[in-house]
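pasting input
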Amino acid sequence: MDNDIDRKRHCYCVIMCGGVGSRFWPFSRSGRPKQFLDFFGTGRSLLQLTYDRMLPIADPERIILVTNSAYYDIIREQLPDVPVANILLEPARRNTAPCVCWAAHHIHALDPEATIVTLPSDHLILREAEFHDVISRGIDFVEAGDRLLTIGLKPTSPHTGYGYIQRGERIPDVDGEIMKVKSFTEKPDLEMAKVFLETGEFFWNSGMFLWRADAILRAFERYAPETACIFDAGAGSYGTPGEMDFIDAAFPNASSISIDYAIMEKADNVYVETADLGWSDLGTWNALYDCSPKNQDRNVTQNCKVLAHNCEGTLFASGPDKIVVACGLNGYIVADSGNALLIYPLSEEQKVRQVVNEIKARFGEEFV
Amino acid sequence: MDNDIDRKRHCYCVIMCGGVGSRFWPFSRSGRPKQFLDFFGTGRSLLQLTYDRMLPIADPERIILVTNSAYYDIIREQLPDVPVANILLEPARRNTAPCVCWAAHHIHALDPEATIVTLPSDHLILREAEFHDVISRGIDFVEAGDRLLTIGLKPTSPHTGYGYIQRGERIPDVDGEIMKVKSFTEKPDLEMAKVFLETGEFFWNSGMFLWRADAILRAFERYAPETACIFDAGAGSYGTPGEMDFIDAAFPNASSISIDYAIMEKADNVYVETADLGWSDLGTWNALYDCSPKNQDRNVTQNCKVLAHNCEGTLFASGPDKIVVACGLNGYIVADSGNALLIYPLSEEQKVRQVVNEIKARFGEEFV
C-alpha cells in the first residue's frame, strides 16, 4: 500500500493527443480529430476514456497532455480536471520523438525521480483491469533501472498495418511477460505477417511506452543527439514560466521523427511487456468494424438507430437521434455526421483520405 | 384586355393542399408533407410554386386553400399574402369530392358568377407559359356554359400509376385541344397502358379541373346527391362567420370519395383539354428521378453537394449545406433529411411506405 502511494507520487502519464486524421471523415474533422470523438456513444471521447483509464494509476495533476495548440479549447472542455499547466501545446507538428523529449524534460524538471507512462489518445482498450495490471507491472520494472519498456500486444490476425516487435530473451528474476526486444519490424507484407503470427514471438507495437524520465533523456543523448541538443538548450526553463517561450522558438527546429525510429529501434535497453488488452488502434473504419459487436447479418450499428433490409457486413455510424434506413448494402461504411454523409465500400476505405482532399478542393474547408 | 380584367374578377382558384404522404420520407414527414417542401432547392415549395403559377390568372384574394387544420401554420408561413379567410380547414380527411363541394359552395356564396380552377398543390409543371394558355383557354370554355373540364396530359410513357382519360368527339366552334371525354380508366396494366399510348387518344388525368361554381354544384346535385345534401344544408352560412361551425359539424359526415369517381366518371358534360405541360405528379422517387436533369452517369443531385464514384442512376437528395460522398451505388435513392437517412434501391421504393410504418412502430412518431 505504501509502495502504491509512493508509485503514484512519482508516476506521470503523458497522453499524446495532437494527431490529426482524415480517415474517419466525416466523423473526424480537421478541427475535431478522432481522439476527441465519442466513438461508441458512451458519452466519453477516446481521449476521455484514455484519461479515465489512467486515473487509478496517476493523479490528474500528473497527467500531461501534449497536443497541438488548435486543440486547447476542446481539451479544456473534455478534461477540465487536468491543470492548464499540464497541457503542453506544440507549436508545430513533429511526430512523436520531439513530443516525448519535451514531455520528459518538463516532467523531469518537476520530479527528477519521475516515471512516465506515455500513451496514444485514440486507441481502444477493452480489458481495463488487464491494462492496469500491465501498467503497474511495467512501472515496477522501469523504476528499477535504466530501461525503456514498450507494450506489445498479442496479435489476433496477420495485420499488415501495424509495426511488430519480436521478443527475445527472458530476464532473470523478472516476470515472463517482460522480455528483451529482439527486433522491430514496420508494417510487414502479408506473407511475413503470417509467419510472424505463427511463430508466437511477434507482437503488435501499441505505441505505449514506460520509462523513467532520466532514462529516456539519457537515451535521447545517446541515440538521437540532434533532438536531445535542441531540448537540452531549454534546461532551466522547463517547469517555469519561461518554458513556452523556449519551446515556441526551439520546437519547430526539431526534426519530424517517430520515437520508435529515433530511440526504440536503436537502443540496447529496450524491453517489451506482452499483453492481451482487447486493443485496437481504431486506425480505420475496418478496424472499427472488426472490433465492434455485430448482428446476425454482420452489420455494426455505431451510436444510431438502423433499419437494414438485405444489408450485410455494413457499418452504420451516425448520431443517437438519427435513424438510418438502408437496403441492399453489402460491406459498406455508412457514416453520417454533421454536414457530411459517406457511403463507401469498406474494402475501398483507403480512398477516403483522397476523397477528403477532393472535397476540400472542390467544396471548401467547412466540409473537412 | 377588358375581357382579361373581367375574367380575373370572376376567376377563383382552389388549391387542394391537405394531403399527407409518406412516399417521400424522410423528406416528407407527417407534419410536413410533400406540398410544403422545397423539392428543387429553388427557395419555393411545391405549394408556393403552384400559387405563383396562378398569380397571373387569379388575385391572391381569390385563391382558396383547402387543407387540413394541422397545416394552418405552415400555410400562413408559406403564403402570407393569402387572406386568412381563404384558408378552408377541413375537420376530417375525406378525399377530394367533399373538398371540391365545400369550396364551390364557399366561392359561390362570394360570387355566384365565379369560375373555379381546382389544382393539386404538389405537382411539377415545367412549361409555365403553356400552363397559362391552357388555363385561360379552359376558363373561356367553362365560363360559356354548364361544362366540367379536366386537363389531360399528353402521356410520355405507358405509366401504370396514373388514371387515363380517353378523348372523344370534337366540339363545333371550339379549339381542337378541348374535346368531349369518352372514358376514364384508373391505373391500367402495362399492356393496356401501351395500347393507350399508341392510339394517341388517351391522356393522363392531371387532377386539374375547371368549372363554374354553379355548374359543379349542379353536378353534385345530379351525380353525388348524398354529398350535395350534406353541403346544401349549410346554405346561408357559406362566406359568413357561421361557416366553420357548420363545416365542423357537417363535413365529417361526408363520405370519403374522389371527385373523379363522384362526378367526372358519371357526368355527361365532361370535357378534356389536352396539353403538354412538362408535368409530373412527383408521386414517387422514381417520378422525381425521371423528371430531373441527370449527369453523364445518370445521377440526379437534388439540392445538395455530391461526390459520386462509380455510382449510376442514383438520386441524391439532401440539404444545400450537406455533402454526400458515395461509391458503387447503382439505381439508389439516397435521401437525407433531418433525423433520418434513407438509402434504398429506386426499384424497391414502393416498400418505403411500409418502412415508415415500421419506423413509427419501432422508433416512434418523431421519425416519421
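fyi Residues 10 and 114 of chain A are 5 Å apart (CA to CA).
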